[in-house]
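Exercise 3.2. Students should predict the tertiary structure of the chain below and write it as structure tokens, then compare their answer with the key that follows.

Predict this chain's 3D structure.
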Amino acid sequence: MKKKEVPFINREISWLSFNERVLQEAADTTTPLIERLKFLGIFSNNRDEFYRVRVATVRRLAKLGKKALAIYDEDPKELLTRLQRKVIEQQIRFENIYQEILKELAINDVFIINEKQLTPAQASFVRDYFREEIVSTLFPVMIDDTKPFPFLKDKASYLYLKLESIVNKQKNKFAIIEIPSKIISRFVVLPKQGNKHFIMLLDDAIRFNTDQIFDVFGFRTVESYNIKLTRDAELDMDNDVSKSMIEKISKSVKARKQGLPVRFVYDAAMPNDMLRHIMKKLGMAKKDNAIPGGRYHNFKDFISFPKLGEKSLTYNNPPLLQHKHLINNPLSTLRAIKSHDILLHYPYHTYNHIITLLREASIDPIVETIKITLYRVADSSKIANALINAVKNGKKVTVVVELQARFDEENNIYWANKLQEEGAKVIYGVQGLKVHSKLFLITTREGGKEVKYAHVGTGNFNETTARVYTDFSLLTCNKLIADDLSKIFDFYENNFKVYNFKTLVVAPFYMRKVFLDLIQKEIQNAKSKKPAAITLKMNSLVDKEMIEKLYEASKAGVHVTLIIRGACSLVTDFEGWSDNIKAYSIVDKYLEHTRVFIFHDNGNEKIFISSADWMSRNLDSRSEVAVPIFDEGIRAQLKEIIRIQLSGNTKVRIIDRKQENFYKKAKPGEKKVRAQDEVYSYLKNDNDKFLNINKTKKIIYN
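Answer key:
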């Protein structure tokens, strides 16, 4: 932490500390072995995006020289050095963990072998597999010093080869082969031998067969190493008013693929002559974010590692729960919502409830309109298809598609075009704002009266990520909330008008002020010797004004409890500043994505769920929504879920001022609590009690 008047941890440094927590899961021997490999994949994918976005931004700032200090409050060049040092430390640990996992997998009869470890029978299988499945996907490039060096794509991994002439008077050459892991699986499953399972990486299957490619040209392979280039992924959009937003985004996404290099990763075993050659060709000095790595790159593919061996090698997650008010429900989902506010909690509850609701709404004669925001949708989106079906059934459908959802731009453009072609009204976000809110509004005509059904959530309308992200969806018929939601959709359609909202807390208009005022009220209560407490759960806490206000609250005696998954720039354990602040982070089998804000208010608690973190971008330059929770049963449920998470003592880390990520451990004689498992048990028990009260004999699961 750099010495400043107000204690503040750099966002990038804190983010690396978060990714260290992901690496801890890969190192944790209580995590099933194949899941540990997947955590290595998650760590690797996180790091790629970190370089493509955050490091790329810092590098851009570094080019501004002294001007950057006015923007960033820190020397970008010094920060880049610190980041690289930390990344290299993590890479060394990563490689050590991978080697440990390989040994433990072997003990469990799962072997990841390379081309030098094949038996004759396996070698024959790999040669056949190469001819039948792999070779047609390869497009090798022999490097000719008289021609431009081949363009290396972002996110792709390559084999960089030294070729030796087997024909007189030919010079040795170098070649590049892209590993086609987007086309075929990165993992070649070899024939089983008894109880033993064997896997070979696609990289090594290619290495084993490169002579089949080059011998016809008079060369054989003498050296082969993995390399990978990460490019700047920030979008640069022109200001040509004659172009549509889709045209601008499409052009920018294409340009991103040509972005400047921000990191070069290479096999540390590569000889110096090959390293000098490739870096010269790339126009990079060795200091320019060149990271020595292991034999393999693009470990993100390990997220999809095959399930082999005993069941104990992977998580055995329990069946998804139906919500208690939707089990054996003889009514439509809309009518169930009319009877009760419903809080869904994924991935514990099935996401099929949302799919079913939209599918029913697309058919139900009483439904007149559906309005929804889409930020990141699944590739084969059931949500989008339900909306298309609604159009076909004569409903008026309005879809706000955020085209600037990073790395999902192309998918969003596809669905925006598809929805528009089918007859939906598509709004391409709001000029100058990212629409990050997770909303839909269904309007019906019942008994001649208009009735509105609202959804406000913390996560995307994405049935794929709902299996691994923890998120909340509030479904309500509350008229005040629904009317406010209607105003928000009116704003999306008519950006020139700003509304007042009776219940919803909306960014960028009021959210910052509302939360600052709520913190101020706790400060006043503490100074008046009244109970004062704040509990905040979010992904990131980096906004300086909000952090300074929390310091002020701590100094006044307000007890502040934080659950922050990712970057946390607030410095805990800092005498005189954060004496009354405790911060924790949960990293486990599900990705914690919920945002919950609780203000004690002298017993008159204010409880919100939201799509927004406390970052400047969320509060000032995005359309975000926080919804107050009025239903007493749901309020109690949210408080109990937060209590369970704070009681966790196996997968919970303490966020301290040094970012050391110490685990919160069970005290002597204390029961071990794994928060995510306990939340599932709590929701299941809640179902059981409800069904017993209603004399229903069995729970139906999806």
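Discussion points: The radius of gyration is 27 Å. Residues 1-108 form a domain with the Methane Monooxygenase Hydroxylase; Chain G, domain 1 fold (CATH 1.20.58.310).
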